[in-house]
C-alpha cells in the first residue's frame, strides 16, 4: 500500500483537479500556448489531439527524449473537470454541474430501430474523454485480444494480452482501500494486476449506497462466479470496478492532470497548443517523403497555418475526428472521396468505416416490501440539506469520504452468451454468423458504399467468423450490467455485429462529422439482446430480490415471452451509445480494410501514425478509458524504441 505521506503529497501536488484553471494561477497551465507566435519553427513530433492517448504519448516522448520537441494540438481549452458526482450536485446520476466541454454527436436515424437517433458525447477539452467520462475504470478481458488476432492474423500477436498487460500496469497507480473500508464493503483486488507509478490514479471509493449489495447478492444467488480481481485478464462473472479518481482528494484523475499538469513544469520540450483544430495533413513532396505537413486552424482568428514535424505526426483526435482529418486530406475510400468532391491522395477504404459502440436496453422493477432501517443512506438522502452539507464537508477532507467520492458504478456483471442462453440458442446464433460468411451475404449488412470494397467485406467476414467462435467461449463476455443503486439496470451488449460510418458534413467539412451507427442493421444483434433481457429477468426470483418484494415493471412477462413484443421493447428502451465508440481506423491488414498496422503506422503513408480508440479492430469487453491509456503507453514505447534505434544506427548512442 502506498504510504499516507506519499498520497498526501500526491494530493497536494495534483489538488488542481477540482478546478485546474479557475484562477489561471497554476504554473503548468500558464505555459499553455494559444497563438502561433508562441510556437517553435518546427517540432520533432506533432500530436493531433490532447486527449487520453495523445497526452500519454506526449508525456512519455518528452521524458524519453529531452532533446526532442513535442507539440500537442488540442481543439478544446483547459477547463475545470469535476467528477460525475461532485458538490454542489444533489442528484446522484444526474447531469454534471460545471462539466468541461464535450462534443455532442447525434447519429443519423437508425431504420432498424424505429428511425431513432443515437447520442454520443466525447471530451472537447485538455484530457479528452478522460476529463468528462463516467470514471468507470475497467480493462478488457484476455479473450478480447485473442479475438483481435483471430481477425487480423499473426501480425497482431504483439497486441495479445501478454503484449498489453505491462502497459495496463504501467498506465495507472492503483491505491488499495483502507482495512476499514474493505471490512465494510467487501472490496477485493489483486495487486499483481497493478504496479504503475504514473500520476493517473484509480481506487475504490470509501462509500457505497446502502442498497448496493442487493444486486450483488442476487447475482451470486444465480450462481454467477465472483471474481477477486477483473483487471488481470479474466472477467467472467461479478467484478469490483475501480474508478479514476485521486485516492486522497477523490477528485477526477484524468490525462490533462496526470500527463500534462503533473509533468510539464520540468519539460521545456513539451508544448501544448489549445483552441486550434488540425484540419488536414499534406504530403507536398509525395507520400514517401513524410512526415506530412500539418495544417492547423485557429479557432479564435480562423487563420490557417502549417506545422512541420521532423520525426512523426501522430493522429490522436479520437474515433470521430481522426477519420475526419484523414478524409479532408484525401485519405480514405476512393468512391466516397469522389462523391464528396475531394481529390484522392491515398485509397484506404477503412477510414471512417467499421464504426461500433456498446448499446442496449434496460429493465426496471419496484420493491414492494420495506428496507431495514439500517439500509441507509440511499440516494434519496441527498434531498436532506443537512445530509448534503455533511457530505460536502466530508468531500473536502483529506482523505475525502462520503457519497461525493462516488462515480457512476463499482460493481458490474460480465457474462458470456453461452452461460445465459440455452446451448441450442447459443449454437444457433454462432451458426447464423458462419452461414452469413459461407453464403457470401455479409456485404448486405454493411453500409452501401462499403459493399464496393472487397477489403471491407473480407474484414467483416473475418470479424463474423472470429466473433462466432468468441460467442461460444464460456469465458468471453457478451453482456455487461453495471450497478450502483436503484431499481433499474442497463444491459450493455459488448460485441455487436452491426457496423456504421463516420463521414464529413459536406456542407461544412470542418464542423463535426456525420455518424451513422446503423444499430441492429445485422438482425443477429436483436437475438442477442433478447437473450440478455431474458436472462436478467431471472434476478426477480432470487431470495434476495424476493425478500424485498421485487416486482417487475418492464418488460412484463407477457412481453418477455413473445419474440416480436420483446424486440419492440428493446427498440423502445435502446441506448444507442454507452459512450464507447471505436474502430474507425482499424488495426488490420490492408486486405481486410485496415488503416494501421501493429506499429500503428498508417498503411502506405510515411511518418504518420494513429493512436486512439479508432485503431481497435472490434469493441472490447470493457469501457475504453483504461484501454486508451494502455494504447498510449504501448504506442509511446514503440516510437521510443524506433527512434532510439535510429539514433544508435547513426552512432549517437542512446539519449
Shape: globular
Tell me the structural class. alpha/beta
Q: Considering DSSP H and I runs of 4 or more, what fraction of the residues is helical?
A: 25-40%
Radius of gyration: 24 Å
Specify the CATH class of one domain: Alpha Beta
Average of per-residue pLDDT values: 94
Largest β sheet strand count, sense and barrel closure: 5 strands, parallel
Query: Low-confidence runs (pLDDT<50, min 5 residues)?
Result: 1-25
How many strand elements?
Answer: 23
Share of residues in strands: 15-25%
The appropriate CATH architecture of one domain is: 3-Layer(bba) Sandwich
CATH homologous superfamily annotation of one domain: FAD/NAD(P)-binding domain
> What is the overall number of helices?
18
The termini sit apart by 34 Å
Protein name: GMC oxidoreductase
Pfam family, one: GMC_oxred_N
InterPro entries: FAD/NAD-bd_sf, GMC_OxRdtase, GMC_OxRdtase_N, GMC_OxRtase_C
Keywords: FAD, Flavoprotein, Signal
Amino acid at each position: 500500500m502506498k504510504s499516507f505521506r506519499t498520497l498526501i503529497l500526491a494530493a497536494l501536488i495534483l489538488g488542481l483537479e477540482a478546478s485546474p484553471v479557475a484562477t489561471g494561477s497554476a504554473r503548468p497551465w500558464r505555459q499553455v500556448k494559444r497563438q502561433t507566435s508562441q510556437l517553435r519553427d518546427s517540432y520533432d513530433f506533432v500530436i493531433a489531439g490532447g486527449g487520453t492517448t495523445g497526452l500519454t504519448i506526449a508525456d512519455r516522448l518528452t521524458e524519453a527524449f529531452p532533446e526532442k520537441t513535442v507539440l500537442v494540438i488540442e481543439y478544446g481549452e483547459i477547463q475545470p473537470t469535476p467528477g460525475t458526482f461532485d458538490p454542489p450536485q444533489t442528484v446522484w446520476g444526474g447531469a454534471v454541474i460545471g462539466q468541461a466541454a464535450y462534443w455532442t454527436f447525434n447519429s443519423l436515424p437508425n431504420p432498424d430501430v424505429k428511425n431513432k437517433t443515437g447520442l454520443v458525447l466525447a471530451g472537447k477539452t485538455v484530457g479528452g474523454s478522460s476529463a468528462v467520462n463516467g470514471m468507470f475504470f475497467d480493462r478488457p478481458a484476455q479473450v478480447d485480444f485473442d479475438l483481435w488476432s483471430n481477425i487480423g492474423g499473426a501480425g497482431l500477436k504483439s497486441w495479445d494480452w501478454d503484449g498489453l498487460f505491462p502497459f495496463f500496469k504501467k498506465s495507472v497507480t492503483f491505491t488499495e482501500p483502507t482495512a476499514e473500508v474493505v471490512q465494510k464493503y467487501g472490496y477485493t483486488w489483486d495487486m499483481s494486476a497493478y504496479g504503475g507509478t504514473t500520476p493517473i490514479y484509480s481506487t475504490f471509493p470509501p462509500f457505497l449506497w446502502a442498497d448496493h449489495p442487493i444486486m450483488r447478492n442476487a447475482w451470486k444467488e444465480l450462481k454467477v462466479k465472483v471474481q477477486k480481481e477483473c483487471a488481470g485478464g479474466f472477467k467472467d462473472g461479478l467484478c469490483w470496478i475501480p474508478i479514476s479518481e485521486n485516492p486522497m482528494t477523490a477528485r477526477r484523475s484524468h490525462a490533462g492532470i496526470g500527463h500534462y499538469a503533473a509533468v510539464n513544469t520540468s519539460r521545456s520540450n513539451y508544448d501544448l497548443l489549445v483552441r486550434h483544430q488540425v484540419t488536414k495533413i499534406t504530403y507536398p513532396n509525395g507520400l514517401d517523403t513524410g512526415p506530412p505537413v500539418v495544417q492547423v486552424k485557429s479557432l479564435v482568428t480562423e487563420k490557417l497555418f502549417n506545422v512541420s514535424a521532423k520525426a512523426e505526426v501522430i493522429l490522436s483526435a479520437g474515433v470521430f475526428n481522426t477519420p475526419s482529418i484523414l478524409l479532408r486530406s484525401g485519405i480514405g475510400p476512393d468512391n466516397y472521396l469522389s462523391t464528396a468532391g475531394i481529390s484522392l491522395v491515398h485509397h484506404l477504404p477503412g477510414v471512417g468505416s467499421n464504426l461500433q459502440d456498446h448499446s442496449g436496453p434496460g429493465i426496471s422493477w419496484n420493491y414492494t416490501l420495506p428496507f431495514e432501517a439500517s439500509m441507509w443512506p440511499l440516494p434519496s438522502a441527498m434531498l436532506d440539506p443537512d445530509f448534503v452539507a455533511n457530505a460536502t464537508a466530508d468531500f473536502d477532507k483529506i482523505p475525502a469520504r462520503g457519497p461525493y467520492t462516488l462515480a457512476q458504478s463499482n460493481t458490474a456483471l460480465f457474462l458470456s452468451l453461452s452461460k445465459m442462453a440455452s446451448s441450442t440458442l447459443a449454437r444457433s446464433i454462432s451458426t447464423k454468423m458462419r452461414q452469413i460468411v459461407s453464403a457470401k451475404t455479409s456485404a448486405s449488412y454493411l453500409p452501401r458504399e462499403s459493399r464496393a470494397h472487397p477489403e471491407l467485406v473480407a474484414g467483416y467476414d473475418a470479424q463474423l467468423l472470429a466473433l462466432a467462435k468468441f460467442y461460444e467461449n464460456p469465458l468471453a463476455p457478451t453482456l455487461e450490467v453495471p450497478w450502483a443503486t436503484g431499481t433499474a439496470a442497463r444491459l450493455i451488449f459488448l460485441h455487436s455485429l452491426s457496423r456504421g460510418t463516420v463521414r464529413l458534413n459536406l456542407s461544412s467539412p470542418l464542423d463535426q462529422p456525420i455518424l451513422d451507427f446503423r444499430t441492429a442493421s445485422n438482425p443477429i444483434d436483436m437475438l442477442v439482446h433478447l437473450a440478455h433481457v431474458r436472462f436478467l429477468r431471472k434476478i426477480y426470483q432470487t431470495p434476495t430480490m424476493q425478500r424485498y418484494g421485487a416486482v417487475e415493471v418492464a418488460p412484463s412477462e407477457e412481453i418477455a415471452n413473445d419474440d416480436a413484443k420483446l424486440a419492440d421493447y428493446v427498440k423502445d428502451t435502446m441506448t444507442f451509445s454507452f459512450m464507447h465508440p471505436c474502430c474507425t481506423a482499424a488495426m488490420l491488414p490492408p486486405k481486410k480494410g485496415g488503416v494501421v498496422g501493429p506499429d500503428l503506422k498508417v498503411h502506405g503513408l510515411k511518418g504518420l501514425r494513429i493512436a486512439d480508440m479508432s485503431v481497435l479492430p472490434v469493441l472490447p469487453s470493457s469501457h475504453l478509458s483504461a484501454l486508451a491509456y494502455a494504447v498510449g503507453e504501448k504506442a509511446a514505447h514503440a516510437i521510443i524504441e524506433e527512434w532510439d534505434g535510429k539514433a544508435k544506427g547513426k552512432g549517437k548512442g542512446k539519449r
